[in-house]
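Quick log. Single chain, no ligands specified.
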Amino acid sequence: MADKSMDGLNTFTAEAEKKVDGGRKLRVAIIGCGWIAGSHIKSYMAQPDVEIVAGADLIPGKAAEFFKKYGLEGVKTDYANDEELIADKSLNLDAVSVCTYNRQHAPCAIHALNAGINVLLEKPFTVTLEEAIEVVKAEKRSGKVLSIGFQPRLDANMQKIGEIVRSGVLGKIYYIQTGGGRRRGIPTPFGTSFIEDSTAGLGALADIGCYSLDMVLNAIGYPKPLTVTGYKSDFFGKDPNYCGYRADKRAEYAEKFGVDDFAAAFIRLEGGIILDFRIAWAMNMDTPGDTIILGTKGGLRIPSTECWNGSVGGPMKIYHEVAGMQVETEVPIIKMKEGLFDLKIRSFLDAIKNGTPAPVPSSQIIYNQAILDGIARSAVAGREVEINVPEL
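-> predicted structure:
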């Protein structure tokens, strides 16, 4: 029997069938069958032109149970790892979703691209900049679509931020403050893959920090990062008394915690723009502050959310002058009919079928990853570091 969470997809399925030619079905596999894979499979099942044919997970039996949960029969899952799945030519794969833990993102994406398979790679892009460079090299060699899982940028409210910047109403952008966080929100409901260094590599930085960076960097055209002074800490994650952990797991989780639960940075971008960034899984505050974009003609305030989820926390405001008077213009919230995850999946599939560029291209997100990598390196070094992204 299919999972009850499928019920909410009926409307999207009906709309998709009207717009999408289901005659040519794309054959898709899912690599990594944990929590985020559930969102992928539900969106794929809502598409009239997708056939889910295979899946793999490092934990024996996990993939089979995953597809059984969603009522899918005949999906091949007898693979020890992603390489075995990708080597199975009988699958005739068009695409894979890479839904593994962070440290497996790069190798799984590279294996698939080297085999000539299109890839939807969950965020974060990778753990290190060096890994991201190798993935992009594989993408260039393959000529296939590589899209990174940054669905918040498909929110109409997020896109409005870019429209405001491009309109010129803010003038020249020179300073941005961004970030977000949770008062108590270290993600451990499904075990420790998010918090162990051996699986995650980065913590809050990669989990939600990449989203907040993308919100502003995408709006201003993704300028190249030049230098970063970074800081990160783990005070809450390593505390066995942290109230966000299950009571019976506090000592175990605190012992295994090996990533950041808070990070901050001061980043210099090409074009003379300063980016002031902070992100938290846990902190003694409700929010580290709204996102603000300051320009020579106006400023934009983007309200924070209680639990950073990739959207805006309320109507945005533009602070500017009109006929010599200081005024504020409110930008109302745009209500979305479509689910962002469905849009992410659909835009990826359309790029494959239509031969169009990746909806969230690596050429942009490599700068995002370079900043995350720079923050981590700077935090360890205790000083400012340069960011060097080679031309690929």
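The longest helix spans residues 362-381.
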